[in-house]
Amino acid sequence: MILFALVIVAILFFMSWNLFLSNRWVHITTSLISSLLLLATIGFSIANFNQHYGMHLVNHTHTEKLASMSPKQSMLVYEKVGSAKKHEIVAYRSTNNGSVKHTNPDVSVKNRIVTTKSAKPSLKVTHRQWSYRSNAARDWFGLAMKHQTKSTVNTFYVPKSWIVLSASQAKVMKQSAKKIALNNKHQMNSQQAKSMLKQKAQAYVQAKMMKAMQKDPKMTASQKKAVMKQAMHEFKNQMKRKAMQKIMKQVLAKAKTAPEGYVAK
């Protein structure tokens, strides 16, 4: 409405200064009134554009689910941008199979990564937005100035087990993972490693068998066989987990040699 008012007042201003010339007092009065109205209308318009007159700041917040960027290791990846590297883009997923999303690199956007005791990671997005104080203010200035977002804060809440790496570190991690896994596989295939693994497997199965026999001394041969099979299955899974943990530890140690990253604590 302020734009329409500005047009109408401008027309009145023109008419008052160019008409009513025959009556001096009418001319002066209408000219002064139209001039004041024009100045007031322009002033309110400038105040709305520059100082957000008629508006106030309101926070709009929503929370999203957060999933790891890697299926093997819970992690979040960011990259420094800009000539001074003072801003960053955070890459993330909302679901395990979802597409990769990126935060806005705009200077008004800030990203915070916070470790939490919660096991469920999440992303809290807070938009600080200029909104009109009342319907009247919206009616007057709505066509001139729309709602604007002043700033956005993306807060990533991640468990302590998550790691946060820069894009360069994530790249090093990906490149070194296969190489380290292959080296570990070669080491495990040595005769000494196989012999040690066999001894550990026998000890694990025997311990499980003794525990089962203590609970049920009258176990049948088929029951004993089932216990041994289950124990061997558990042992293999345990060894796989330990091997993966060892690989990831080596990979992370390699990745952290690249700049701009840290392990969440």
TrEMBL record:
InterPro entries linked to this entry: DUF4811
Keywords: Membrane, Transmembrane, Transmembrane helix
Residue intervals passing through the bilayer: 32-49
UniProt protein name: DUF4811 domain-containing protein
Organism: Acetilactobacillus jinshanensis
